[in-house]
Here is the input.
Amino acid sequence: MKPAAVITGASGGIGQALAGQFAAAGYRVFCGGFCHPEQTEQLVDGLRGQGYEAAALQADLSSSQGAEDFARDVLERCGSVDVLVNNAGVAQQKLFQDITDADWRRMMGVNLDGVFYLTRALLPAMIRQKQGRIINISSIWGICGASCEVHYSAAKAAVAGMTRALAKEVGPSGITVNCIAPGVIQTPMLACFSEEDLQQLAEETPLGRLGTGNDVAALALFLASDQAGFITGQVICVDGGFAL
Here is the structure.
């Protein structure tokens, strides 16, 4: 039976690349989407049209019950999960003093709570099978911080910390936990930036370009592979040298 990969935030630019690369590598892909379910369905239809095994699931992972229901649905369909990619996320630019309680809770709910809730829900099955790969998507702003994105930076920094701690806890069960910190990646999240801003960001990147979803997905696929079996607790930047 093909291995199973759960990918949250599958409707976004990075999520679509993740789903496509994991499907092409022979995984049964379970694509989680909440804010844009129609885009998740279109993604899954496209993957199935190419002969891949894929399914779309909708759940509010910022809710403990939503994550539990999502995990139960996945496990009923496939029995076990080999790879969990916690990719769902939201971003917002605001001055620190303008961040409202609702802004803070949404940022933490989607970017941090969802990682905790879904990992907690799926981890027992991985422990029982004595193997698994957990890959969390953070951000370089969780490492170096970003002006006008304090709440986003804080949530992504917490994801990196959770990764390092959980890796130590579940390593004896044969489970690796790693974190990818993307830099400036060409996705719909950049829609708020002008062409001039994007050009400047590319020029500030040592490799001279913005990243793509496939750049991130390629690393995730490697971390899920047997070749990465001795890599755990790492936070790896995919940023073209931006944060150096």
Summary: Residues 101-129 form the longest helix (29 residues). The longest strand covers residues 175-182. Residues 178 and 234 are 5 Å apart (CA to CA).
